[in-house]
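Good morning C.,

I know you're traveling, so I'll keep this short. The sequence:
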Amino acid sequence: MKIVASSLLLIAFTGPPSASAAEADFTPSPHQEAEKVSATKPLEKKNSKSYSFFEAMGKSIWGDVYAHPEDWQELSYSDFFSKGWDQPWVSPPDGPGGAPRQGWLLAYEGVFYRLGIGVFGWQHQLAGQGDGYSATMVNFTPINQRLNIQTDIPMVSNDLRHDGDRQTNIGDFKIQPRFLLSESESLTQTLNISFRTPTGNSVNGAGWASVAPQYQFWSNPWKGLVVRGGTGFTVPYAGDIQKSGTRTTYDGNLAIGYYLTPHNYAPLIGDLVGYVATNLTQVIDNRGPSSRTFVSIGPGFRSHVADNWYLLGAVEVPVTYPQPYDYQVLGGIMKVY
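The tokens, ready to paste straight into the viewer:
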């Protein structure tokens, strides 16, 4: 794998930030009173009213999805095609250990949210050609209890042409339908299919299209402990594939964290969680001279600042060679709505 390809796959923030940063309405924030009720006593499910697709979408996007935790329901693989599609999304309860369903930088989501987040990145010695910078606006939009849409709008700035002339351009736009496979109080599983479009410039290592199916999960096995992660593939199929140096890869992620404070400890330290995330990218095509493995590890945190605003941070350090960069520092500002 070329060094450029490795760096771009990890700056894009679709997976581990990604980014994804990062990133999906990190449930407990907007209406903590309702969440405390849902976390301390069993949810009493009301008789569900069926909605049309657009009615459910409207209530999921603009309705108060935190006011009635009793409208949340467990979903399973067996009723995937018959349950949840005609119901507005409802913010799920905390896990049985009291951990909220929230997103972290560098970690796969595995959960539905309703929020927007700006993720900023600094890569030290990107491809050996000075520092690189990135900024991505990520938005998670629930459509119903089974479908959530993630969009990523990135900007990148680097000198991957090795000519001393830094280039700053818009990156490759991504849209990701996310399907809820199953959800209980302790475990959520999703199937995500990310579509990358060649809106960026090849001089930044962008300008290529891909499809990236991923399985993701979130779990709260004990007290404030959260284990999350997933696995999938990234398959480029169009655009400046050769010029950007991108490759077909197998991708994996595992993150483990522990919540240290409750939500009402805001400002600054509410819902404070510390975690460690590791990411794997393995080239599996024959378009290059050799197949290389990229593995990184990094600590991160997330905290509730005030009024449904959150602060996120992480540092990623590659532990395999060749390294696409020495390390990268990520920061995020999030608004749950």
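Safe travels,
E.
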